[in-house]
Design a protein that fits this description.
Length: 99
């Protein structure tokens, strides 16, 4: 599975304007199968749970709040490549079905 960091890196979306890329990605996300949705949600949980653990530890260590903020800011940087990689599979399938 190749990781894409922006939608412009996906070969089937390179020449499309932003609005059309966004619509194509939304359509591909609707085609996700159960295991793919589960994988994406588990990855999201693995990022969100440490944020709450850090927030709970703020009373003992104020630096935990800084870690929580750092993890929260890193959330889109971690999740987006996985979403785009899963979507790329369905974009290629819909393109081959359209031909």
């Amino acid at each position: 599975m190749k990781l894409y960091f922006t939608s412009k890196q996906i070969p089937s979306l390179q020449n499309l304007p932003l609005k059309e890329r966004f619509e194509a990605l939304q359509g591909a996300q609707k085609q996700f199968q159960g295991p793919e949705k589960l994988l994406l949600n588990v990855i999201k949980l693995c990022i969100v749970v440490p944020v709450f653990i850090c927030i709970l530890q703020v009373s003992q260590n104020w630096l935990a709040l800084l870690w929580a903020l750092l993890i929260t800011l890193a959330y889109p940087l971690i999740i987006r490549p996985f979403e785009l990689s899963l979507c790329a599979k369905y974009l290629n399938q819909s393109k081959s079905q359209g031909n």
